[in-house]
Structure formats: C-alpha cells, structure tokens
C-alpha cells in the first residue's frame, strides 16, 4: 500500500470563465497533519470539496485512501469526515440529539455515551438539552467539530475549523487535532491563521491564485528566507515572516512576467 493517504495531481477547476484551480498537486502521508494556507479566493475550499467528492474537477486526479474521487466516491466518503467553513448542524435538535444522530448513522455502540463525552470535552454539557437555534456562533462551531470527530474516519478534513472560536475553544480544537494524528488519523487543514498552521502542521503548503507556490516542513520553509543578520539572540523565523517573503517574491515574479 502507498505511504500516502492523499495523492492529488494536476487538479484544475473553473467556474464559468474564472479559473479557480490551476494544476494543484501535493501528497499527504498517513497520520500527517497537512495545512493548506492561503488568502480568501486562493482555492482552498474548492480543493477540499473535490477531495471530499462534493465537486467534480475539470482535470487532474485525486486519490483519497486508495480511491480515485471521481471513480469510487462512495469508498472515499466512507473513509473521511468533513467540517466545512459553516457549521452544518440541525437547529431544531438539541446539541445532544445532533451528536446522537451522527453516532447512530456511524453505527456506533452507546451513541448517548459518545455524545455526552464530546459535549463535556467541548464545554457544551450545560447546553446539551438546548435547541441548537439558541446557540451562539462559537457554540455551533464547537458542536460541528464534535460531530466530525464521531467515528474513526481515516481522514479528517477541517476547512478553517477555528474561525469564530474563542481562544480557549481554539486551543481545545488544536489538542484534539494533535491527538487524532497521534492515533493515526490523517488531518487535512485549511486555515488563514498562520500561528495555527505553525502550531499544528507537519507540512505546510501555501496556495495562491489556484496554485501551490511552496510546500514543505517548517524547517524547509525557513530556508526560503534570506539569511538573517547575526543577532545576539538567535531568533527562529515565524511562519508569518516566511509567508510574507514567499508572497512578495511571487508578486515580484508575476510583475516581471507582465
């Protein structure tokens, strides 16, 4: 079996006359946390939607857990769990009922126990019996992520999972992501938060205008920076510094081509 849980090659996608993906390629190893960084409109969500079988590519291929997304979409869906940018929760049900419903759909033993454990972990136990329509935006987000964690999906897609969360809830999500990867789950994360990618990811790809412009581990990305002047205290470059340097280099290259 391949070392890679995901192998994406030459993905292209256009909406009418707008090219959103322009030959996206990358690979993600088993049990790795892979972060896809980029501004709004870079193509991150479109990439996730293709890998999660929610959108068909115009060209290229995506093999997820050994299955090509356009040829074996059902097999892909059985291997994955997805948290989209907007909370997909049933507002008529209570928080506990939402979780129990997913646990039953996943054919788990003791759905109520699974639900109660997640409500506790996400600080939602006191709101368990309230309808989700009464939840704040942050509470809905927490519930949505909790629903994603039900069952043992081989791959979890998290599309900007901590947007709108308070710092405490954000750290709780980070802990869970690390725990999942430690137990062998592959996590594919898109984020606009550079500190989030730096904190969590084994490998980081930066996407711009439908292309991946750089990819690597944090130490590999650090080498893209120009050598720093000698300082009394050696300072580790942040992902933000790397990101800005890469983007400005790309912009200069684009300007030079025009």
Number of helices: 9
Can you list the strand order of the major beta sheet? 6-7-8-3-9-10
Q: In the CATH classification, which architecture applies? A: 3-Layer(aba) Sandwich
* CA-CA gap between termini: 45 Å
Oligomer state of the chains in this structure:
single chain
What share of the residues does DSSP label as strand, in percent? Answer: 15-25%
**Average pLDDT for all residues:** 86
From the alpha-carbon coordinates, what is the Rg to the nearest angstrom? Answer: 19 Å
- CATH topology value: Rossmann fold
Contiguous low-pLDDT stretches (5 residues minimum) are none
How helical, in percent, are the residues?
A: 25-40%
Helix/strand/pairing class, anyone? alpha/beta
Order of SSEs, N→C? Answer: EEEHEEHEHHHEHEHEEHH
């Amino acid at each position: 079996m391949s070392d890679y849980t995901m192998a994406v090659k030459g993905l292209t996608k256009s909406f009418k006359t707008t090219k959103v993906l322009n030959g996206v390629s990358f690979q993600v190893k088993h049990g790795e946390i892979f972060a896809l960084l980029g501004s709004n409109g870079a193509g991150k969500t479109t990439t996730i939607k293709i890998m999660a079988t929610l959108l068909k590519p115009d060209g290229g291929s995506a093999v997820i857990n050994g299955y090509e997304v356009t040829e074996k979409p059902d097999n892909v869906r059985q291997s994955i769990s997805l948290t989209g940018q907007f909370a997909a929760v049933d507002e008529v049900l209570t928080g506990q009922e939402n979780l129990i419903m997913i646990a039953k759909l996943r054919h788990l033993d003791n759905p109520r126990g699974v639900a109660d454990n997640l409500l506790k972990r996400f600080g939602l136990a006191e709101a368990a019996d309230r309808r989700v329509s009464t939840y704040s935006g942050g509470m809905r987000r927490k519930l949505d992520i909790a629903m994603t964690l039900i069952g043992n999906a081989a791959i979890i897609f998290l599309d900007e999972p901590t947007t709108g969360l308070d710092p405490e809830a954000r750290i709780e999500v980070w802990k869970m992501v690390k725990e999942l990867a430690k137990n062998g789950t592959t996590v594919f994360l898109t984020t606009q938060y550079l500190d989030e990618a730096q904190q969590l990811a084994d490998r980081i790809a930066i996407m711009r205008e439908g292309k991946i412009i750089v990819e690597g581990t944090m130490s590999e990305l650090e080498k893209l920076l120009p050598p720093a002047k000698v300082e009394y205290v050696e300072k580790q470059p942040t992902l933000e510094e790397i990101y800005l340097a890469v983007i400005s280099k790309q912009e200069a290259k684009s300007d030079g081509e025009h």
